[in-house]
Amino acid sequence: MRAEDSDVRMRLLVAAKRLFARQGYDGTSVRQICEEAGANVALVSYYFGGKENMFQALFDTFFPKALIMEFVDRQVDPINGVKELVREVMRFHTTEPELVVLLNQEIALNSPRIDIIRRNAFPIWIKLRELLRQGREDGVFHFRSLDHTMMTVLGNVLFHKQRNYFLPILIGDSNDQEAAIEDSVDFVMRGLQANTDIISQ
């Protein structure tokens, strides 16, 4: 692909990501994407074959699939594995906030594009489930229900940035993103009653 083509294609994807997050996928037209990108309306069909394929292209471009698969394939003990997973998912929220907003919208709506999200995101959640299961089996995590525990960890990791609704009652003492991540790691470890004497940190 020529550099000029690559630049136009990226501008279209960045515009789509921004508008999908702001207006929703269904509330965004191809014309709006092209206006935002400063591109001819015919170029969405030329590069992607239509708006529907842009959704998958957002994952191909901005979702850290290579990092996910490296982590999924790597052998790691349950404590350090869960800690790393929590940290990296929360950092992804910071680096790709618009994509995260879009994903949350699509999940909440159970949209027709939910299978695309599952194909891309489920490997990391399956790894989380396996780390939790292995940790309980090894005696380093202590909890009753694997399903309930997994959903609680996911809630902490996925929705910690959904602050707007609660802004009137927040006191504004959480501006340090890395500190917030470490607070979440500590919270998850305490919730799992992690026995760090068995596996060193």
From TrEMBL:
The keyword Transcription does not apply. One of its GO terms (biological process) is regulation of DNA-templated transcription. The keyword Transport does not apply. Keywords: DNA-binding. It comes from the Bacteria. Residues 6-66 form the HTH tetR-type domain. InterPro entries: DNA-bd_HTH_TetR-type_CS (IPR023772), Homeodomain-like_sf (IPR009057), HTH-type_TetR-like_transc_reg (IPR050109), HTH_TetR (IPR001647), NicS_C (IPR041474), Tet_transcr_reg_TetR-rel_C_sf (IPR036271). GO terms for molecular function: DNA binding. Residues 29-48 bind DNA. This is AcrR family transcriptional regulator. It comes from Paenibacillus phyllosphaerae.
